[in-house]
Write a structure and sequence with these properties.
Layout (H helix, E strand, L loop, with lengths): L3 E4 L5 H12 L9 H9 L9 E6 L2 E16 L6 E14 L8 H15 L4 E5 L2 H4 L5 E2 L5 E2 L9 E5 L10 E4 L8 H8 L17
Parallel strand pairs: 4-5, 7-9
Antiparallel strand pairs: 1-2, 2-3, 3-4, 3-9, 5-8, 6-8
Helix pairs in contact: 1-2
This protein binds coenzyme A (COA).
């Protein structure tokens, strides 16, 4: 598919939030909150305009991905303070539901990785399906002794070095931007900006 991938323009923010809502609706829970997370990430200090990307097919937006700054924090002796390493976190990512499985997501991921490496970032960490993200080189973050903020490791918690040895310098816990956390009351207000959609049973049930 001949896609154009470029930075998202400010006047495309709402359209990409709506596309994200369409892609995630009733996927992991009744309705979704990923469009609000995207909105909040765009207002955060972790926001990187060059890594807020749209995919266009014949001028129409058919995919979107955002990547924000995050960190791996290593607890050392309290008197020394905490050492931390800046990394990136990908997501939410989406492809137009009518065009999924045709390479939109892959092109967005490959472009994100190339841009992030070109900007000198060290690594990308994300939560996602290993069957999908392993094709881009992501591996279980445990390989780099990086755990979640509450010190856990599981297969969908994945990391990618952006150059050889780039994640070797630090071990510790991963903290993504607080913008990923959405409040129910805020979501209810935000939803009023979008077309009405029926909530239903989630198509993917996440393990508790
Ligand atoms: C996930 C998503 C961005 C992938 O984009 P896409 O354009 O559909 O995917 P591509 O065409 O690039 O890749 C297709 C391949 O990925 C696989 N794939 C797609 N979505 C997947 C998912 N959520 N988990 C695992 N594999 C997935 C397909 O089975 C296909 O595999 P194959 O090449 O072995 O046949 C898109 O499907 C989407 O928007 N999904 C809904 C929102 C979502 O789940 N986002 C990611 C949350 S981590």
């Amino acid at each position: 598919m001949n896609l154009t991938i470029r930075e998202t323009d400010r006047n495309e923010f709402f359209e990409t939030e709506n596309l994200t809502r369409e892609a995630f609706w009733n996927l992991y829970k009744p309705g979704c909150d990923e469009h609000l997370a995207l909105h909040q990430l765009r207002e955060s200090t972790s926001y990187i305009p060059k890594l807020d990307l749209v995919a266009l097919l014949d001028g129409r937006i058919v995919g979107h991905v955002i990547t924000t700054k995050a960190k791996v924090v290593e607890s050392v002796a309290p008197e020394d303070g905490d050492a931390s390493l800046e990394v990136l976190c990908v997501g939410p990512i989406c492809a137009d539901p009518s065009l999924q499985g045709k390479g939109v997501g892959s092109q967005l991921m490959r472009q994100t990785i190339a841009r992030a490496a070109g900007m000198g970032f060290k690594g990308i960490i994300l939560y996602g399906d290993p069957a999908y993200y392993s094709r881009f080189g992501f591996e279980n973050a445990q390989k780099y002794s990086i755990s979640t903020h509450d010190n856990q490791n599981f297969d969908p918690f994945m990391a990618l070095e952006l150059y050889p040895g780039s994640l070797a310098g630090i071990t510790g816990r991963f903290f993504e931007d607080p913008g990923f956390v959405t409040a129910d009351a805020h979501l209810e207000e935000f939803e009023k900006l979008f077309p009405v959609k029926e909530k239903g049973e989630p198509r993917i049930i996440l393990p508790v």
